[in-house]
Design goal:
- This protein folds into two domains: about 120 residues, Urease, subunit C, domain 1, CATH 2.30.40.10; about 290 residues, Metal-dependent hydrolases (TIM Barrel, Alpha-Beta Barrel), CATH 3.20.20.140.
- Strand 2 and strand 3 form a beta hairpin.
- The protein contains 14 helices and 17 strands.
- About 55% of the residues are buried.
- The strands form two sheets. Strands 1, 2, 3, 4, 5, 14, 15, 16 and 17 form a nine-stranded mixed beta sheet that branches.
- Helix content is about 35%, strand content about 25%.
- It has about 425 residues and is an alpha/beta fold.
Length: about 425
C-alpha cells in the first residue's frame, strides 16, 4: 500500500490514554486519516508519497480552541482596560452595530483562521452573527470548526428582528449540516441575561432536534445573577437546569461564578465547560473553579474568546496562563500540572465540543490534525519533560508545520 504521508523520526506525543512519549516516533497518513503511529523503526520500508522529516521537532495533535468569536479580531485593542459591562455595552455593542456586516465578518474570520493555524490550532469552536460568512471563511481556510449562529433577544447583525433569531439559527444549521466534512454547525445563545427563558428553551429544543452542540455563556461575572429576571433564589446553573438546557451536548462558556452545588449539577447533566482564562483575567471577571470541574471528570476545554477581550488566539500562551493562574489562585503549585493543561488544549477540548472521536489525539482511525513544534529554539533547551516544555516554554512561533485532515496548511511557519 502507498500512503500519502510518513511523518518521520520526531518526538511523538499522541495524547492518547496514558499520555505516552515516543522519543523516535512516526505517523502514517492516508486519505486524511491516521493509519498508524509508533516507533520510527516500525516504519522502515513503508511506501509514502511524501516523507516529512520531523527531526528536532515534537509531533503532536493540533490544538483545540473551544471558544472563539472569530470576526471580533476587527476589534482587537479597541476598548481595553474596562469593566465587562462598560466594555460590552458602551463600546463593543455599538461598534458591532456600525462595523459588522457580511464582508467584514468574512474578512476578519479569515484573518483569525490564519492566526490560529500559524499558532498550531487546527480546530476551533465559534459563535457569532452572520455565521454563514464565518463558515465560508472557515471552509476556505481549511481549519476544522464548530460554528454557532448567534441567538440574542435584541436586534443583531444579520438578524434585525429578534423574533427571527432562532429560525435564522435553524436555517444556518440545516444549510451546513453534513455538507462540509470539517464544519459542524451549532446554535449559540449569547447568555441567560440577553436571552429570555422562552428563547433559551426554544433554541435548545432546536439544537436537540437538529442534533447539534448548544453553546451559551454562563456565569461569566459576579453581577450576572442580578441581570437575570425571575431567577429567584436559584443560581444560574440551577436556572439553566430548570429549563432543561444542560446535557451532554451543552457547552457552558466561562462558568466562573459557580459553586460546588452547580458543579454537581453540571456533572449530573453531562455538560462541558470552555475555560477562557486570559479573557476572564483581562476583564477582571474572576477565576473559574477549573481544578474542581476536572476533579469531577467534567470535560473542560481551553478557549481564547474573541480578540477584543484577549487580544489574540494563541493557545500556547493560554496554556501557560491557565496553569499558573490556578496555582496562584489556590496557592498550590501542584494544581493544573502540564499534562492536565495540555489535555485541555487537545483531547479534553475535543471532548468538550463533541469531536473527540475525530480529533484531539494521534491515534489510528482519527483524522490527521497534526502539528510539528520546533524544539531547537534557545527557550526550549534543555528539555527534561516535553509536556512541561510545551506548556511553560513553547511559543506559538515554534509551530513549524500544520496539517488538518491530511492537508498541509502551514509549512516553515508560512500559510500555504
Amino acid at each position: 500500500m502507498e500512503y500519502d504521508y510518513l511523518i518521520d523520526n520526531g518526538l511523538l506525543i499522541t495524547m492518547e490514554k496514558g499520555l505516552p512519549i515516543i522519543e523516535e516516533g512516526s505517523v502514517l497518513v492516508k486519505d486524511g486519516v491516521i493509519e498508524a503511529c509508533g516507533q520510527t523503526n516500525e516504519f522502515v520500508g513503508v511506501n509514502a508519497k511524501n516523507h516529512i522529516i520531523a527531526d528536532k521537532k515534537i509531533i503532536m495533535p493540533g490544538l483545540i480552541n473551544c471558544h472563539t468569536h472569530l470576526p471580533m479580531s476587527m476589534f482587537r485593542g479597541l476598548a481595553d482596560d474596562l469593566p465587562l459591562d462598560v466594555w460590552l455595552n458602551e463600546h463593543i455593542f455599538p461598534a458591532e452595530a456600525e462595523q459588522v456586516n457580511p464582508e467584514s465578518v468574512k474578512k476578519w474570520s479569515r484573518h483569525s483562521c490564519q492566526e490560529m493555524l500559524l499558532s498550531g490550532t487546527t480546530t476551533c469552536c465559534d459563535g457569532y452573527f452572520h455565521e454563514d460568512n464565518v463558515a465560508r471563511a472557515i471552509i476556505e481556510s481549511g481549519i476544522r470548526a464548530v460554528t454557532g449562529q448567534g441567538v440574542i433577544d435584541f436586534p443583531a447583525p444579520g438578524v434585525p428582528d429578534p423574533k427571527k433569531n432562532i429560525q435564522t439559527a435553524i436555517e444556518f444549521v440545516k444549510h451546513y449540516k453534513d455538507e462540509f466534512p470539517l464544519l459542524s454547525p451549532s446554535i449559540f445563545c449569547h447568555s441567560p441575561y440577553t436571552c429570555s427563558k422562552e428563547t433559551l428553551k426554544a433554541a435548545k429544543k432546536a439544537a436537540i432536534d437538529l442534533d447539534v452542540l448548544f453553546q451559551v455563556h454562563v456565569a461569566e461575572t459576579q453581577n450576572e445573577v442580578k441581570m437575570i429576571q425571575k431567577l429567584g433564589n436559584m443560581s444560574i446553573v440551577e436556572y439553566l437546569e430548570s429549563l432543561e438546557i444542560l446535557d451532554e451536548k451543552t457547552l457552558m462558556v466561562h462558568s466562573v461564578w459557580i459553586d460546588d452545588k452547580d458543579i454537581s449539577i453540571i456533572q449530573k447533566c453531562g455538560a462541558s465547560v470552555a475555560h477562557c482564562p486570559e479573557s476572564n483575567m483581562k476583564l477582571a471577571s474572576g477565576v473559574a473553579p477549573i481544578p474542581k470541574l476536572i476533579g469531577k471528570n467534567i470535560p473542560v476545554g481551553l478557549g481564547t474568546d474573541g480578540c477584543a477581550s484577549n487580544n489574540d488566539h494563541d493557545l500556547f500562551a493560554e496554556m501557560d496562563t491557565v496553569a499558573k493562574l490556578h496555582k496562584v489562585a489556590l496557592l498550590d503549585p501542584c494544581v493544573m500540572d502540564a499534562r492536565t493543561t495540555l489535555k485541555m488544549a487537545t483531547i479534553q477540548g475535543a471532548k468538550a465540543i463533541g469531536l473527540d472521536k475525530v480529533t484531539g489525539s494521534i491515534e489510528k482511525g482519527k483524522r490527521a490534525d497534526i502539528i510539528l513544534v520546533d524544539i531547537q529554539k534557545p527557550h526550549m533547551v534543555p528539555m527534561y519533560d516535553p509536556y512541561s516544555s510545551l506548556v511553560y516554554s513553547a511559543k506559538s512561533s515554534d509551530v513549524n508545520w500544520v496539517m488538518v485532515d491530511g492537508r498541509i496548511l502551514v509549512q516553515d511557519q508560512r500559510i500555504l
